[in-house]
Amino acid sequence: MRNKQITARLVGFFITLLILPLSGQAAVTLDRTRVVFDGGSKSVSLNISNDNQQQPYLAQAWLEDAQQNKLLTGPLVITPPVQRLEPGAKSMIRITAASGQLPQDKESLFYLNLREIPPVSDKPNVLQIALQTKIKLFYRPKALKRDPGSVWQDQLVLHTEGGGYRIENPTPYYITVIGLGGSEKQSLEGDFETVMLSPNSSVKVKSAAYGKPYLTYINDYGGRPTLAFRCNGSRCVAR
């Protein structure tokens, strides 16, 4: 009897969610989908905006490490952690690095979180949702600085292994691979589970074997270039 009562309450709760109006439209937005922190600079700034023209919002920002644990102290600090954005207003958040606390021979990975907090509604039966955005932040040491537009992803190596490929990343950079196929179109549009390779690492992915593989990755600007590979035996390098 008790189980039936609990089930009935749960059903009623979900029905209520379906019929209540939701204020879940994203309002507070970032100006980019990833952040590259140049180690030659003391800080990096991001623009945020409240796209809602009628209501103010609070914007709460914080950082996480590579294991997605919240940073409570250095090596990076974000300010302000909370701010109020008036309707249609724009603002900034700044990330500052503490000197000497991060590796200088390879990139470090962090996550930037931005949560919007709506004002309390004066209307009855309104379910409000605090939406949250999470993007990757790469700290790139000054020693790794390259010319704008330069490519290091072409140093990736594909090794044919049973049931797929082992993708080798011999670089000091994080590289996100979003596609692999036998043509540029298949690499861009095919079914592939995105993988992110940390510096000087490799990862095994399931795939058919291709005579001329193509690989698609995400660059610093969120673009999706595709590399063509040529193979010699079980080893494939970018053409």
Automatic annotation (TrEMBL):
Positions of the Pili assembly chaperone N-terminal domain: 28-144
Keyword tRNA-binding: no
Main location: periplasm
Residue span(s) of domain Pili assembly chaperone C-terminal: 167-224
InterPro entries referenced in this protein's UniProt entry, alphabetically: Ig-like_fold (IPR013783), PapD-like_sf (IPR008962), Periplasmic_pilus_chap (IPR050643), Pili_assmbl_chap_C_dom_sf (IPR036316), Pili_assmbl_chaperone_bac (IPR001829), Pili_assmbl_chaperone_C (IPR016148), Pili_assmbl_chaperone_CS (IPR018046), Pili_assmbl_chaperone_N (IPR016147)
UniProt-listed GO biological process terms: cell wall organization
Localisation: Periplasm
Leader peptide range in chain numbering: 1-26
Keywords, comma-separated and alphabetical: Chaperone, Fimbrium biogenesis, Immunoglobulin domain, Periplasm, Signal
Pfam family, one: PapD_C
GO CC annotations on file: outer membrane-bounded periplasmic space
Membership in a protein family: Belongs to the periplasmic pilus chaperone family.
PANTHER family according to UniProt: FIMBRIAL CHAPARONE PROTEIN (PTHR30251:SF5), PILUS ASSEMBLY CHAPERONE (PTHR30251)
Protein name as catalogued: Pili assembly chaperone PapD, C-terminal domain
Organism: Pragia fontium DSM 5563 = ATCC 49100
